[in-house]
Amino acid sequence: MSNQAAWIDGKAQKLRVASADLPKPGPDDVVIKNHAVAINPVDWKIQDYGVFVQSWPTILGEDIAGEVYELGANVSKFKKGDRVVAHQLSLVTGKPEDGGFQLYARAAAVFTAKIPDSLSYTQASVLPLALDTAGHGLYDSREKGFIGLDYPSLTPKPSGKTILVWGGSSSVGALAIQLATASGAKVISVASKHNLDFLKSLGAVEALDYNTPSIVDDAVTAIKSAGGDFAGIYDAISTEASYKFVLPIAEKLGGTHVAVTLPAPKELPSGVTAANVFAVNKDVNGRLWEEYVTPALEQGKLKAVPEAFVVGKGLEYVQKGFDTNKAGVSAKKVVVEL
C-alpha cells in the first residue's frame, strides 16, 4: 500500500504532492484511510507566515474523515473499516504522519469518533478542529478565565446560564452554539444578516446582525432579556473587527469571561478576563469525543456544520482549498475529497 501527501517545504511555498511513508500506529493511535479533508484558516496562515511548524518539510491538515485502516495495540473502541472523523495533531507533535493532507494519516484514538452511515465523509470532515476549539473555550474552568459550562447532554436540562457567541456562522461559532445549547445554556449569537436563520437552526434563542449600528446595546438587551446567569462570551472571530464590539458588550454587562481564539488586546476593560483557547486539550475535550460526538451525530443532536464546499477531488486540490479559504467563505467550510 502506498501513501501520498500534500507536502509543504517552507514559508510561502506552494504545496507539493509527493509520496509519503505509510504511517504506523502507536499503541493509542489509529491509521485512517482518508476520504475527505477540510481546510482551516490556520493552514494558509502557516503557508504565508511560516508559524507553528517545528521542522520542514511537513504535512498540515487538522480535519479528516475516512475509514479505520489499522489499530494500535491499546485501541479497542474501533475496528478496521469503521467510518470515523478525527482531529489531526501534526502541529503539536511536529510529525508529518500526524497531518491530515495525505491518503493515510495517523490519528490519536482519543480525538477520533465513529460517524453514522447517514453522514457523508465530506460533511463529517468539517467538524474536528472547530469542535475542539469550541469545546475548550466552553468547558475549561472559570478559574482559568474560560466559560465553564457543564458538559453537553443528549437530553439537556436548562442550566440557568446564558452566553453570547460572536461569529456564530463560522465553523467554531456554529459548534459553540450547538455545544452550549446541549449544555442547557441559552445562546445569543451574532453574525451577518443573511446567516441569522442558520444561527437559530443551531439552537440560538436570539440571532443578531453585527452590522446593525446599535449592535452593542442590542446584544446587551438580548442577554438581559434571556435572563439567568450570564456566563461569558465566546468570540469565534477574535480580531480587532470583533473586539471593538465584544469588549464594550462585556464592559456594559459589568465584566465577564471572554474565550478568544487569537490573542486578546493587552488592555481589557475593568472586570473583563480573556482566556486563549488551545484546540488540543485532552483533559477538557477528551470527554466530548469519548461520550458525546458519536451518539449526538447518530441522533441528530449534533449537526456537521457549516456546509461543506468541495473545491475538488485529490490532493492536488488542497492548495486550491487554501486559496479559497483565504479569499473568504461564509457559513461554508472548504473541503477536498480523496
Automatic annotation (TrEMBL):
InterPro entries: ADH-like_C, ADH-like_N, ER, GroES-like_sf, NAD(P)-bd_dom_sf, Trans-enoyl_RdTase-like. The keyword Oxidoreductase applies. CDD domains: enoyl_reductase_like (cd08249). Keywords: Oxidoreductase. Residues 10-336 form the Enoyl reductase (ER) domain. The keyword GTP-binding does not apply. It holds the Pfam family ADH_N. SUPFAM superfamilies: GroES-like, NAD(P)-binding Rossmann-fold domains. GO terms for molecular function: oxidoreductase activity, acting on NAD(P)H. Monomer. Belongs to the zinc-containing alcohol dehydrogenase family. PANTHER family: HYPOTHETICAL OXIDOREDUCTASE (EUROFUNG), ZINC-TYPE ALCOHOL DEHYDROGENASE-LIKE PROTEIN C2E1P3.01. This is Enoyl reductase (ER) domain-containing protein. It comes from Zasmidium cellare ATCC 36951.
